[in-house]
Design brief:
Order of helices and strands: EHEHHEHEH
CATH superfamily: Flavodoxin domain
Shape: globular
Largest sheet: 4 strands, parallel
Strand order of the largest sheet: 2-1-3-4
Strand content: 15-25%
Oligomer: single chain
Radius of gyration: 15 Å
CATH topology: Rossmann fold
CATH class: Alpha Beta
CATH architecture: 3-Layer(aba) Sandwich
């Protein structure tokens, strides 16, 4: 089973957690592909066909990102809007992700208490999990 880790951190070199995760995951490059969106697209111009081909080649897709203002980083949202297109990822003939497992590896700038009253991690990820279930 081939894994794709889509890393979306706008300042990965100054990250503590996400950079450590990438360093650890890079030991397993035979089993997975690490794809860093901010490094691949510093100009924010996403190659949609290339991204869709990458998704097709992998069985599991793991999105790794820090929570930014209770959401994803900008480039991940843009990526989702453009790559997961109508007719490709959903809608008529949009079954290219069918059967793939999608997971999220997220980091936060806060402690457990910050996400225990009304701002749970599950709540923050609800729109993402709903999108991929759709």
């Amino acid at each position: 089973m081939k894994h794709l880790v889509i890393v979306t951190h706008p300042d990965i070199e100054n990250s503590t957690i996400n950079k450590t995760w990438i360093d650890e995951l890079s030991q397993y490059n035979q089993q997975l592909t690490i794809h860093q969106l901010y490094k691949a697209y510093p100009d924010y111009k996403i190659d949609i066909q290339k991204e869709q081909e990458l998704l097709i080649k992998h069985d599991q897709i793991i999105f790794q990102f820090p929570i930014h203002w209770f959401s994803t980083p900008f480039l991940l949202k843009k990526w989702m809007d453009e790559v997961l297109a109508y007719g490709w990822a959903f809608g008529p003939n949009g079954e290219n992700l069918k059967g793939k497992k999608v997971r999220f590896a997220i980091s936060t700038g806060g402690n457990v208490e910050a996400y225990s009253e009304g701002n749970s991690i599950e709540d923050l990820l609800k729109s993402l999990t709903t999108s991929f279930l759709f």
